[in-house]
Amino acid sequence: EKSERTERIEAALSELGDDVVILGHNYQRREIVEHADFVGDSYQLSKEAAEADAEYVIFGGVTFMAESADIITDDDQTVILPSMEASCPMAGMAEALQVDAAWAEITDAAPDEEIIPITYMNSYADLKAFCASQGGLVCTSSNAHRAFEYAFEKGDKVLFLPDKHLGENTAYRLGMEDAIAKWDPWDPEGKDADEVAESDIILWDGYCQVHERFRVEHIDDIRTEHPDANVVVHPECRREVVEAADVVGSTATICETVENADPGEQWAIGTEIHLTNHLQRWHPEVEVLPLCGDACMDCNAMRQIDPNYLTWVLEELVEGRERNVIEVAPEEKELAEVALDRMLEI
Ligand code: 13P
Ligand code: SF4
After folding, report:
1. What is any one GO biological process for this UniProt entry (predicted)?
2. Which of 126, 270, 335, 343 is the Cys-Cys partner for 291 at CB 3.0 to 4.6 Å?
3. Strand, helix or coil at 157?
């Protein structure tokens, strides 16, 4: 039987018809994902946003994703985020002002070389704009290696922000693990100009507080308890966790891995718990295990998108009121779009 809330959401959606499209990230709660027109990883959602015709794009995700949707959609389309509290902590770890200051130090350390900044999608629009202004671009976890290749065709070094783990895992994927320097903007000892001068890849010291909690011991435990289990993890996990896993990839890759598994196979999933739960529901023929047992790997930014807020923004739209509109400042929008377009082209 349908809940009253589901009925209200459905009623609002049928009233709004083609005016509205709902995009949902793989980490969203079940009640959001069930109402989404499209569910996917950050890259797929940015492509869906670019192709959307609806007047309103309701984003089930976090602020930086909704910002990117606003940048990519046409000016007469409006992006709505059901909760303004849904901010990814990692995106806050590289603020444009702080990066600007660090950029002066980093470029001073290697004055004769061209450094290309790449920012992970998990960043705010002003940082995306900064990267474009220096010849750089955006990437997601599904195309970071290609963004690095693009950057090395144009320049000599890469500054990667904000996620040091995705950066390190990408360097390994490209066989460049010996060329890494770390840049910790919060620690005077954590930034070494000589190291920058000698390295090809400079990693900003950001991280995801959900994925950093996975440890190699979790993989050891799974392999002891389920000797036939395979392990798939997200590249925001620590290097040693990625090394101990069988497969690494974006949330879309994690979905495909389980989708393509044979019935009866066991897969332990090293990512946000809502996706693990969805995969258990979507693929009951596969034995889907959370990598970290009962220690809930829950992203509290994603969890801010409560189905009651979805109901509210939809019902307000029916009444002609736009709530929680995400609008990137025009002066940042143009350059941030360049950074996103470069990604969509590679
Ligand atoms: P994906 O690009 O793999 O969907 O990841 C986004 C994210 O926030 C992971 O923590
Ligand atoms: Fe940000 Fe991590 Fe949550 Fe992804 S899982 S939105 S990176 S805090």
Report:
1. 'de novo' NAD+ biosynthetic process from L-aspartate
2. 270
3. strand
Domain count, the chain: 3
Taking the C-alpha atoms of residue 38 and residue 20, their distance in angstroms, rounded to an integer, is: 12
Whether 273 lines ligand 2, by a CB cut-off of 6 Å, is no
Verify whether ligand 2 is closer than 6 Å to residue 210 (CB atom): yes
The pLDDT tens digits of the residues spanning 226-245 come to 999 999 999 999 999 999 99
pLDDT score recorded for residue 1: 86
Ligand nearest to the CA of 91: 2
Question: Is residue 265 situated within a structural domain?
Answer: yes
Task: Quote the pLDDT of residue 7.
Answer: 97
Amino acid at 270: G
Residues of the chain predicted below pLDDT 50: none
Q: Is the Cβ atom of 46 under 6 angstroms away from ligand 1?
A: no
250, part of any domain: yes
* Closest ligand to residue 42's CA: 1
The amino acid occupying position 58 is I
Question: Is the beta carbon of 288 within 6 A of some atom in ligand 2?
Answer: no
What pTM, to 2 d.p., does this model score?
Answer: 0.95
Question: Mutate which of 26, 87, 90 to test ligand 2's pocket (most atoms within 8 Å of Cβ)?
Answer: 90
91 vs 65: CA distance, rounded Å: 10
Q: Give the separation between CA 145 and CA 174, rounded to whole angstroms.
A: 7
Phi, psi of 339 (to 5 degrees): -65, -40
Residues of the domain holding 130: 91-207
Residue 339 lies in a domain: no
Complex ipTM tops 0.85: yes
